[in-house]
Specification:
This protein has 4 helices and 10 strands; from the N terminus they run βββαβαβββββαβα. It is of the alpha+beta class and about 200 residues long. The two termini are about 20 Å apart.
């Protein structure tokens, strides 16, 4: 059975369609109107080996906040839907990713209880039209809506672009490991019997 989902969201602020294939090869097609965010979503798909399609139109004349947050909601919901009952998954994943002087560690538990611990000290600035404070907003929305316990910890870094890119890639690699099917796992990997 294919582990994939499509999520659509339309509000007064955004109109978004997300398609995700969990067992993909990292093929992405992302258009949000925020070029640096597109670059980060491309990295997320490629390094998690998700086939990820995102089409988003938002009130960018205000700023990118609604677009970034709502895309996080939709990607999270799509991942949760595609995971189904989570039978056979590894459940846990972790990664450390360097990007030049930056190093970020990520750990994921597909727990069903969405929460984010974000210890990433990013300089507050604009990268193109992307406000660096929005990286955290994306990860909050992603973790909450996918039902992930997600930890992101910056070990080193000075350059905002490098830090955020390392965070996206680390999250992607940890997610890839956590959602992979493992032939040795029978049923749902939880003593409770459900996640």
């Amino acid at each position: 059975m294919a582990r994939e989902a499509v999520v659509e969201r339309a509000t007064k602020e955004t109109s978004i369609v997300v398609r995700v294939v969990l067992d993909g090869s990292g093929v992405t097609d992302v258009v949000t109107g925020v070029p640096f965010f597109d670059h980060m979503l491309d990295a997320l798909g490629r390094h998690a080996l998700l086939d990820l399609s995102v089409s988003a139109k938002g009130d960018l004349e205000v700023d990118a906040h609604h677009t970034v947050e709502d895309v996080g909601i939709c990607v999270g919901q799509a991942i949760a839907t595609a995971l189904g009952d989570k039978a056979g998954i590894r459940r846990f994943g972790s990664a450390s990713v360097p990007m030049d002087e930056a190093l970020v560690l990520a750990a994921v538990d597909v727990s069903g209880r969405g929460s984010l611990t974000y210890d990433v000290d990013v300089p507050i600035e604009l990268i193109g039209s992307f406000d660096t404070t929005l990286a955290k907003e994306f990860f909050v929305a992603l973790a909450s809506n996918a039902g992930l316990t997600l930890h992101l910890h910056e070990v080193a870094g000075d350059n905002a672009h490098h830090i955020i890119e390392a965070a996206f890639k680390a999250a992607a690699r940890a997610l890839r490991e956590a959602i992979e099917l493992d032939a040795r796992v029978v049923g749902v990997p939880s003593t409770k019997g459900s996640l």
